[in-house]
């Protein structure tokens, strides 16, 4: 009964967002089974209109647009999730470690982060990717490194408040290791804001990858990517063809649904904190 009551308390916007997010995850995982045609197969003419053969028409070289959108979801979302996980592991780990260690370690890590954050994120990424290339591993490392600086700031601020609590002092008196204090004392008490930040950072990474692909430095052709699909089919707008709007709508629906879920989670977690107080 309690579980049913909690489900009924979920706002309609959050339920809608959760459904949209689940659909995206299903498409991402089962892309080869859902897509009508292979990712790179050119089977029709240029910018054909929707038909029984091609549900949404074809792209600039005759590939099925529906199949490209399906594979684009798998490529873009999977890379964004992996990049966000790496960024959070690095940022949270270093942020907690800086506060627990203190002294020159905290100063050194904080100054390195300040230097990285001094450069505009997009310009820094464009310079690095232009020099090193736009392979998937380099793309993931560069974006994860840039994103981890923001996560580090949040994790360090949270750890700074928790680090002075009595239970942390007790753990130190028991001579627990740094990893124990970070993982068993600080992390559980910092989870709600970190989970919310994970959703926001995922949105940032997802949009960042799409932006780089739109500029030609993200996921490289012939791999499908929603940002690149907007750029590749941009000329269709001149002829009154709405094909570029499909990948743009895909980017928008995932970003909006993730933000709605994050807002709902923040409201729930803040309400729980108020009840405890």
The helical percent reads over 70%
Q: Biggest β-sheet, characterized?
A: none
Q: What's the end-to-end separation, in Å?
A: 25 Å
- Evaluate the radius of gyration: 22 Å
Q: What is the quaternary state of this protein?
A: single chain
On the 0-100 scale, what is the average pLDDT? 86
The CATH architecture can be given as Orthogonal Bundle
Shape: elongated
Number of separate structural domains: 1
- The CATH class turns out to be Mainly Alpha
What structural category do the secondary elements indicate?
mainly alpha
How would you describe this protein?
- The chain is an all-alpha fold and 277 residues long.
- The protein has one domain (23-35, 46-252): MetI-like fold (Orthogonal Bundle).
- Helix content is 75%, strand content 0%.
- The protein contains 11 helices and no strands.
- The protein has helices at residues 2-9, 12-29, 31-34, 65-101, 103-118, 121-132, 136-162, 166-173, 178-215, 226-232, 245-276.
- Helix 4 packs parallel to helix 7.
- The longest helix has 38 residues, at 178-215.
- It is elongated, with a radius of gyration of 22 Å.
- The chain starts with a helix and ends with a helix.
- 34% of the residues are buried.
